[in-house]
Amino acid sequence: RDPVLEIRGLRVDYGLGDAAVHAVRDVDLTLHRGEVLGLAGESGSGKSTLAYGLTRLLPPPGVISGGEVVYHPVDGPPVDVLSLSPARLRAFRWADTSIVFQGAMNSLNPVHRISTQLLDVIKAHEPRSAAAARLARARDLLRLVGISADRLESYPHQLSGGMRQRVMIAMALALEPQVVIMDEPTTALDVVMQRQILGQLAELRQRLGFAVLFITHDLSLLVEFSDRIAIMYGGRIVEEAPAADLYRRALHPYTDGLLHSFPALRGARRELTGIPGSPPDLRAMPTGCAFHPRCPRAFTPCDTDVPPLGRPADAPGRDVACWLHPVAEPVPR
Ligand code: ATP
Ligand code: SF4
Ligand code: MG
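Structure tokens predicted for Dipeptide/oligopeptide/nickel ABC transporter ATP-binding protein (333 residues):
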């Protein structure tokens, strides 16, 4: 399949030298054109840091300390995102890859009408377009996310949380990007609303063809709405697979724990078990497999050797980093 965004060996630290916290460690991840890729992991696993790193929106003291991010436009040569000039980077952020931040629905400016905020995004990138054309575009965008165009004149507080979130999605889609990154856009919303929004996004990408990187704690949502799922633990990707395969059979014990800490999608409700123990301290990472202190299946090499992420011999088409599934072929760098 055709990659649209390739992340290779990405490392992101907070701070420098001995004080650095390694929040993203050698992450390889490929987003294909038009797919929904879900990224899940417990709080602190590095999901947001990965998203901010690849769009170069890291707040200080965040620094990218290694790796590559390559964006493939529909036509034209590949773009090395980490070396873009500030001007090119601004264009890249809305026109090629747009991002809806964690808690974004609260980032609408309360004193401006929805129309002003939506039109500002369009105007910033199409300064020479006619005002009437921009307004028509703003109306279309609202309708696209299921909000009637007469809401344009509303203020954010006049909209429900779900509507505000959909306004943010409309803004993210305004310049028809190839990649939309959503960082936990739904945690503050109720479950019904979460499903509606992610479902709508999956449908929109079918019409518009963009790819989605969707970041959440809620693995059950991802199982339902994404094509592939990547699982992050302690700054690394520990498993990656087509959503249905992952749900049917998790290879990594951590993925298994995550799946069982959510109620089943269908059938009898299971107990919410959670995973015993707590996520690793990034300043004092366990040796070997970072999950070994919590892993019910840990064995001899686990506390000394870091398992590489790769294609296991016993499950073709998937990637896992666990000694239970020895890797026949490491993920190509
Ligand atoms: P959540 O699900 O809670 O959003 P996350 O997976 O997005 O978590 P990140 O926010 O990327 O996790 O954080 C990854 C790690 O980086 C965490 O251990 C966090 O403590 C650390 N971190 C984040 N921001 C900073 C900072 N400004 N300075 C130092 N460490 C930071
Ligand atoms: Fe558990 Fe070992 Fe696999 Fe880590 S490598 S997840 S400790 S079995
Ligand atoms: Mg986060």
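Residues 3-105+176-330 form a domain with the Rossmann fold fold (CATH 3.40.50.300).
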